[in-house]
Amino acid sequence: MKIALLSDIHANRQAFDACLAHARAHGAQHIALLGDLVGYGGDPRYVVQQAMAIAAEGGTVLCGNHDALAVLPPAALGKAGATVATHGARWTHSQLSAEERDFLTHLPLTAVVNHTMLVHASADAPERWRYVDNEVVAGQCLDAALRHPGVRHVFCGHVHRQMLYYRGTGHGLMRFAPVPGVPVPVPPRRAWVATIGSVGQPRDGDTRAMYALLDTAHWQLRFERVPYHHAEAAAAVRATGELPESFAHRLETGR
Amino acid sequence: MKLLEPGTEVDGFTVLECIHSGGMAHIYRVEYAMGPPNPGFPLAMKIPRMTAGDGAETIVSFEVENQILPSLTGPHVPRFVAAGDIDRLPYLVMEYVHGRTLDHWLEQPEKPDTETIARLGAAMGRAVHSLHQQNVCHLDLKPGNVLFTSEDHAYLLDFGLSCHAHYPDLLAEELRKAVGSPVWIAPEQVVGVRGDPRSDIFAIGVMLYELATGELPFGSPTTKGGLRQRLWMTPAPPRQYRPDMPEWLQETILRCLEPEAARRHPSAAHLAFDLTHPGQVQITARGQRTRGPGLRTHFKRWIKAAGMYYQPSPLPTRQIEEVPIVMVAVPHADVSDVTLYSLRQAVGRSLGIRPGARLACVTVISPSASSSTDDERSETSLHRQHSTRLRQWAEGLDLSGHSVSYHVLESGDVAQALVRYAEGNQVSMMILGAATHGLQTQRFIATVPMRVARDAPCTVILVKQALPFAQLAAEYTE
């Protein structure tokens, strides 16, 4: 089965559509959204509605920290302090219908699909939103995932970066920076952790959206970079009149 | 794993005979049990010797080969056919290539002559370059892993310790251990670097050294200290064992064996170039020596080597792209100064942004131009005249940091001669005049620049005449 792994969409309609179209054109049979559907971007309703449709068709949708923030009542957000993120979350909250907020509220933190574990942050404590951004955390994330019978792969979002962690001949994990579009063999005789990058808010200086395509029949993982109309996505952020200019600007620079 | 009997069936293949029984694997000739799908070439099956007593390393290196071999293409690696499940029935089926490994030449009672050594070395250089162009470093080149179908064509075998920059390196580990065969391993591999194409150049150097002298340049170390010796030591010059060896060959072999990768040939294509153009090798003290460097030099290098540590390498393709072989076709007939000037400008610009690039200046003359009776027009004097003209042309270039060579080719078909030269020497970029080597008016005939641009295996830059002279002249007449 080919599983499309998308995370950190961040209410970016244009990037989301581009990645979904790319994945379907490449034969994706299962869509998995690894959380952070909303936050930062200008189209939270569109993205949540698409996610609801994907869930209704049997796809997987997980909860991310921004989704959890956006469903909190505005009063509770006020207590959390007036940061840029909470300001954005208040705006997102105001945009979503009760039904859409209810959908986000009931999203699970982890899922196991075809013997692979999916999680927004780290599998060892999903609710703590830890960043899997080094070999040590990746190792803890992997150890937790391997307790599930039959699981050999963990896929995470949250860090907005594409990276593959694996065990070499030594004890600890090694990191490997993948080349977009090149299928990497990830046979289950080893254990693997991958952070699949962000669909809607790349931060590595490349404006293209990121996602990954896993082929479980051949155990090959392809990290993808998909060009999309980022100027339009930035315009959508500005059109809200509420969200800070920096959210729009970073889509144009990929930073 | 015990040896399989002929006639045994393995996963749809029938075993014909065992052709190699090594420490790590058995290799059998096989064929499809059901006949077709016949790939049209003979097949070999490699089965690792994985019994309870074998270490994990056999399995990992088999896993590495499983990962890398299917991705490789080109005329220097056996074609991949099929692989078995590594946990259940590990095997690899690939093209069976008939030939002799380098061991054949090493086992001869007589050491090969200079020409044979150079041909074998150039064949290895071309094969290794083709691998590097695919982002793979072999990292375990040794006589048993290089198979020759002729003295000019080599196949590379056994990718169990190789490193593919597009895949996670399963042999890497945090502690950066040396992975390789002690006799041929490069100094940077000793400190754990995996992925420098110049490590393969070092291994070729060790093989050429043994071919030429019958000796191993660094012996066969069994300790860590012994392995580290190559981080600072220059081996005894081959001419000490074999005084008849030409200086250019010693220069080339010892350059491969430089402890610092940056002092070796920058790419295997450069090495092949030197081995096929002996007259163009710049000979330094390295080529002339008949005794090794003194104690003092070695002591200084030993101190320096003590501080050598692991550093990651960039992508192999990026490393070799930065040191291309640039070729310029310099016309000799119907050519204006403006054209020659423009060509020089284009070459200067191209070399300027690529330190370490090598420049090959080529001119093609007609075979009928020489005469066996007229001294002035005899073949050698004609070549000398053209070669001198090429040197004069290149004098206006800043060539510091670049190797340069001059070549006079004889052919009735200029385009074909240029394309063949580019193919044969792994040229990365060819520069030629857009309106040279043919008349501009021949718009509907395939002119030389058009044919070259179409057929060349590399980037072709067609240079138009630079403006200054023509423009100035036009302005003055107005």
Describe the structure.
The complex is a heterodimer of chains A (about 260) and B (about 475). Chain A has about 260 residues and is α/β, with parallel strands linked by helices. Chain A is built from nine helices and twelve strands. In chain A, the strands form two sheets. Chain A has a six-stranded mixed β-sheet. Chain A has a six-stranded mixed β-sheet with strand order 4-5-6-10-7-8, covered by helices on one side. Chain A is about 35% helix and about 20% strand. Chain B is α/β, with parallel strands linked by helices and about 475 residues long. Chain B has three domains: about 90 residues, Phosphorylase Kinase, domain 1; about 220 residues, Transferase(Phosphotransferase), domain 1, CATH 1.10.510; about 150 residues, HUPs (Rossmann fold). Chain B has 17 helices and 16 strands. The longest helix of chain B is centred in the N-terminal third of the chain and has 19 residues. Chain B is globular, with a radius of gyration of 25 Å. The chains are: A alpha/beta (about 260), B alpha/beta (about 475). At the A-B interface, strand 9 of A face helix 1 of B.
Short note summarizing the structure:
Chain A has 255 residues and is α/β, with parallel strands linked by helices. Chain A has helices at residues 13-25, 44-56, 65-70, 74-79, 84-95, 98-105, 135-145, 230-239, 245-253; strands at residues 2-6, 30-33, 60-61, 110-113, 116-119, 153-156, 162-167, 173-176, 184-185, 192-196, 209-215, 220-226. Helix content of chain A is 35%, strand content 21%.
